[in-house]
Amino acid sequence: MLRLLACCAALGLLSPWLVTLLADHSQHLAWLFDLASHWQWLHLALLLACLALLARRRPLWLLLLPLAMLPWLSVAPMLPQHTGEPRLELRLITANLQQSDDARALRAWLDEQPADLVLLQEVTPALAGQLARWQDYPHRVLAPADSPFGLALLSRLPLQNGRIRRDSDDIPSIEATLHSGDRAVSLSLVHPMPPLSPYWHHKRNLGLQLALQRNAAAGQPGLLAGDLNASPWSQATRDLHDLGWYRASDLRPTWPALGQGWLGIAIDQVLVHGSWRVLEQDLGPDLGADHLPRRLHLQLLESD
Q1: Nearest residue to 244 via CA among 267, 220, 278, 277
Q2: What are the pLDDT tens digits along the chain (304 aa)?
Q3: 203: number of CA atoms within 13 Å, CB side?
Q4: How far is residue 277's CA from residue 221's CA, in Å, rounded to a whole number?
Q5: Nearest-CA neighbor of 182 among 34, 9, 300?
Q6: Rg of the chain's alpha carbons, rounded to an integer?
Q7: Architecture of the domain spanning 86-301
Q8: Which of 109, 133, 108, 106 shows the shortest CA–CA distance to 120?
């Protein structure tokens, strides 16, 4: 049994590359391995535990130990350390609220830790009504729904060209341009359907790619955030660098919130395009949803 578990853990650690190899041959296998790719910390822990036990009797099992480095080699690229004078400071949060109708926990957190930009997913009409009364966020684009796909974009800074896009399955996303002085930033808020089948796996990957391309086509710094239903090891995020994008959010799990996410996966992400710098980031408190919110303090630098 231990040998089988060790082999399964090794396959899990290899899954980000296996998805790429299988993508042109079997969508079903690619989908299954992509589901496995999210759980790299679990695969790593399982492999190390199995090797510790198996190597007592047969040290040759330690030949698999280098596989423990794979999560750091297969992950989507992190934003490099840029230098330059800051032109824009931006504190943002992204949070999946699990269709809650009560904004009090979110409001209390924002009173303690103010943010310039609030990007919310699973926003109900009742919750949107409360958000619309927040006078400290006068700029907003609301797309609530009685489903898991309601969205809300709230900003202290002016927004222009706010629009709600809907794909062929009527799943919305929000796009807008944030302005601060002479600086403009293209914003995208997304929450694709979970990859519950090969169709939705392909739809999530394609939708995210198109959203990134549209954002970058504006020719200005960009930011995309939300519950991507994809981890930094997923096929959906592996080609970020080729599109000129980087991951600004770290690898701490955000779902499920149970146990502060320590057994979960990092599917709530913030991606950036341009010369950004991450000054600080953390996970927020439990807001009563099944996701933990993510908070980042970013700077847009002069070199952009």
Answers
A1: 220
A2: 888 998 999 999 999 999 988 888 888 999 999 999 999 999 999 999 999 999 888 888 889 899 999 999 999 999 998 788 999 999 999 999 999 999 999 999 999 999 999 999 999 999 999 999 999 999 999 999 999 999 999 999 999 999 999 999 999 999 999 998 889 999 999 999 999 999 999 999 999 999 999 999 999 999 999 999 999 999 999 888 888 999 999 999 999 987 666 678 999 999 999 999 999 999 999 999 999 999 999 999 986 4
A3: 17
A4: 12
A5: 300
A6: 20
A7: 4-Layer Sandwich (3.60)
A8: 106
* Sheet (strand 151-155) strand order: 139-143, 151-155, 117-121, 86-96, 294-301, 276-283
Say if residues 225 and 119 touch (Cβ distance below 8 Å).
Answer: yes
Assess contact for 153 and 174: CB atoms under 8 A: yes
Strands (E), 248-304: 268-273, 276-283, 294-301
**Ranges of each domain in the chain:** 2-74, 86-301
Residues 6+ apart with CB under 8 A from 146: 124, 125
In terms of pTM, does the model score above 0.70? Answer: yes
C-alpha–C-alpha distance, residues 153 and 65, integer Å: 45
